[in-house]
Each structure stands twice: as C-alpha cells, then as structure tokens.
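Lesson 9: reading folded outputs for more than one chain in a single document. The general rule is that every protein is listed as its sequence immediately followed by its structure tokens, and records are never interleaved. Here is the first one.
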Amino acid sequence: MTAAAPSLLEGRHTRACPACGNTDDTHERYSEHIDPRRIDGMSYASRKDPEYMRLRMVVCPACDLLYAPRIPTAEFLRHAYADTGYDSDTEARYAAASYAEALRGRLSRLPNRSSALEIGSGNGALLSHLRAFEFDEVIGIEPSREAARSAPPEVRDLIRVETFDSTRWSAGHFSLIIANQLLEHTDDPFGLLVAAHGLLMPGGALMIVSHNYRHWLMRLLGARSPIIDIEHLQVFSARSLGLALHRAGFIAPEIQNFSNRYPVHYWTRLLPIPGFIKRPLHSRLRRGATGALMVRASVGNMFAWAQA
C-alpha cells in the first residue's frame, strides 16, 4: 500500500456531491490531513484503529451529505480494498449478530426469501445468519482477499471476491440486498443505490447500516471521530440518506439510530486517546475477563430499511 500512496495523493479527480449532484463545495467541514508515510496495508481495512487522517470534507448545501470533493481514482480504490489487511474477524461476528437481530423482525415484510445479496460481506459472518433465516440463495460480494480468506468453511463458497457489478444479475433478482458500512467507501454511492433498486423484486428491501456524521457524539469528537477517516469518501446524515434513497426510487425509507453490541476491549480501540495509552489498555482488556463484557451502545450509526 505504501508504494501506491502517490496515486492517492496525485491521481485524484474532482467530483460534485455524489448523492445529489450539487457542485457547491465551498462549505468546508474538515481540511485535508494526510501523511503518506503512515499509509500502509491496514489503512483501508475495516474496524481498524483510527489513524486520524482524512481527505478534505465539505457539506453539501442541497442534501446535507458530508463528502470529499477530490477523491482517489477508481483503480487506486480497487487495489486498496483488494490488498488491504484484515484483523477484525471476532468483531465482525459481533457486528453480524447485531445486524441479524435488526433484520429478524423485518423478514416478514419481504415478498419471499428467494435470494439475498450482501455487498461488502467481509468474513461472511452475516451470511451465516442469512442461511439460518432460510434464504434459498445467499451471495456475498467482498473485494478484500484477506477478509474472504477469514470466512469459515461453511460460507466461504458463498463469497465472490470481487467488486460489486450489478450487471451480473437480471433486474428484480433479489428479495433482499444488504449494504452495511459500505456507502462511505464507494466512489458512487447514489449509483449503488440505483443499482440495488433495479436488482430488487417488487417489495424487496435494501438494508443499510451507515455512519451518521450528525450524531451528537460524532459532532462532539469532530476530526477525532473514527468516521472522519481517509478511507471514507463521504458520510451520510439521516437527511442526506433519506433524500438519496427517495431519489433512487425507494418507497418511504425508514431511518433510525442503530446500536451495536461489542466487548469492552473493542470499544477501547475507538477511543480518541494517545496510542501509548490505548494500545496497552486494549491489550490488557482483550486478555482479561472485564474486556470480554458485552456493551451495547449507539455511537453514531444509523439503520435504514427501504423497499422497492
């Protein structure tokens, strides 16, 4: 990844708001802060330790999206995610349990359980739950080779190690599409929403868990928030996500705060404190009984359910 760092800094292109197309990028929220010497094989990994590096981020005055008006090339991003490291196998399983809990009560609202697609499936932790929910077909898309290799044998064959390409399926193929913690990373989030809508059968649903930069804790932390990160090309608010889903054709999307259950030791990884304090604290908690205690908290994520 270090060798590719110049591509991140020099090969970027300018874009309008990726949710609504507005071209006013004067409402700066965060200035750029990048140290190319610190970009490594974990910079584009999920659930990594915060690096506190970021692209320039502005707020769209039309739809309220927080986004980077200059981003890396699609080729850089493809290689970055394909080659990234992966060290969050356990945390992914905890996250999947929270996602499955939110999904379970909504399964009856689907037209059927013929086919489910998870875009950004990581180690396949949620795919196991989808099989337990008795979907006839379960497919995961994951660009990271390391993440896919971490999948347990029973779901490894369900994961396609590639970037999402909607042309691989016919219109209306899926009854459920899941895109959790994904919209921040794609260079065309609105295009992904439109593609998902086209792949859903009538009454099918799109499930999203996404960061919310308007959450009170995220506003309090500001640039020290873990969601203000070099790998995040945009971060939605409830308003901007709702507008984007409506514009993509979804009917009356539901958006609400979302809480995760993680062990105490994981939450310490996100603390905005110096590394020389955080690293030994996290290590000690991870080894001890206290660190294994499960804590549910809403720390800036939101859940969206939108039907076609």
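And here is the second record, again sequence then tokens.
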Amino acid sequence: MSVTSEKDLQKRYDFARDLARRVGLDALRYWKQQGVEGLGTQSKGLQDFVTKADKAAEDTIRSELNQMFPADGFIGEETGGLPGSAGYWVVDPIDGTANYMRGLRHWGISIAYVCDGKTQLGIVHDAPTDRVYHARVDHGAFCDEQPIRVSSTDDPHTATGILGMSRRILIDSYLNQIRALYDAGIEYRRIGSAAIGIIRVAEGVADFYYEGHLNCWDALAAVLIAQEAGGTAVVPPMNRFIADGGEVFCSTPALSGQLIGLLPPTTSASI
C-alpha cells in the first residue's frame, strides 16, 4: 500500500532531514579523524571508489529508516535493494566519494523518497558547509529554513553551468558537448558530485547541470529540489531510471530550450 497522506509524508520529511544531517556530519568527522590514509578506500571500478564512511553511512541510513518505517522499501548505492510496490527510499550515502576521500568540498548525503511513481521528498546534506537542501513535492525548495530559487539568467553568454562526465558515455560525446558549449560562449565547470551540482542550480549559483548518465541515487533527491526551486528537469521515466539510470538535465527555465537543443546527444560506451 502506498503512503500518500499528509501526515505520513511530513513524518518522513522531518525524519529524513535530521538523519541526512547527522550522517553527513558523522562522515565529515570521520574524515577529519582518519585522514586520507585511514578511510579504507576500495575501488569498485575505474575511478569509482567506496570508503568505510560510505558503507557506515548507508548502514546507518538503512537501519534507521527501517526502524522508523519498516514497511518502506530501500535502494542504496552500496547495498542495493528493490523498490517494491509501496513507498521506498533511494539513497546515496556519499555522493562525490572521490572528492570526499581527497578532502575536496563537493560531496554530500542524498536521500529521496518515492511513492506513487513520483519523487515525493528530496534531501541533500552539503556536509562540508553543513547545509541541508530539501523539498517536498508542491511545497517549494529550501536551504535549511530559507526558500531557494533558480537563477533568472536568460543570456547564454552570461551563463555558467556544471557538466558531469560518466564513463558509461563515450568520451567523444562528452568532448562534443564541451565544444558545443564553448562555441556558444557558455561557461561550465565539473565538480564531481551530481547531487551537489544540481543543488547549485536549485539555489541559483549555477544555471544548468547536465550529465549523459547518472544512477537514480545520484540525482533523484536533487532533481526534485531543483524542480521545486522553479527549475526545468529532464530525466528518464521513473521505472527506467530506477533500473538503468540515464541522462539528466536541469536548468533555469529561461535557458532550458536553448541548452537542450545545443547539447549533442550522448552515445553509450561498453563497460
């Protein structure tokens, strides 16, 4: 049975915001105590890492959500899971692990709640700054208690975006996107965390985010926050996104049409 009542959603919203902050601050303290050499880093693939902190964070989130909401499903980057027929959580315990393990600032905790085929709740804790970005569908987007809004930029020559790179996409596709932005006079950055990059769009710091392939846990929470902040988002249908991931685009509305037409389509790589 799906959870749709106002009371049920609010209870989950309040609990998940507090949980994301606690887990994010725990991960930050762990890094400060252990340093790079003490993180127990393991490689899951080329430039794809997991640390003891990732595993501990996901274990804590899964355990506390299960204790509080035992009927909910759970999907986590590190431990997997299935969506089930009722509401379920989609979690990236540390989005931007490569940044986290090296002491770079762009990483955070991402928790989304999906029910009735839609992302209902999105929470991203930007741990290095201890700011919780959050949204509930149709209720607006916030940084802690302050409402946030996408930028009003409408001139591409003054725009700055964030361009993610996935090894699931051929490098030629990525380079073509860089050239298209360059030729159009549009600035971009690459910061290594989709959740944080999309949040920067939501709060109006960046004007767009694009990546040719993301997993659902990388983006679901942040995309809802960006949409609730007035942004335009293009993502795969929920069932396909949960199963296979896919292309993600978020933008301030004034630029979305130009950018969607500008960025060349991606071509998948064999991995």
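What the second record shows: The CA atoms of residues 60 and 216 lie 20 Å apart.
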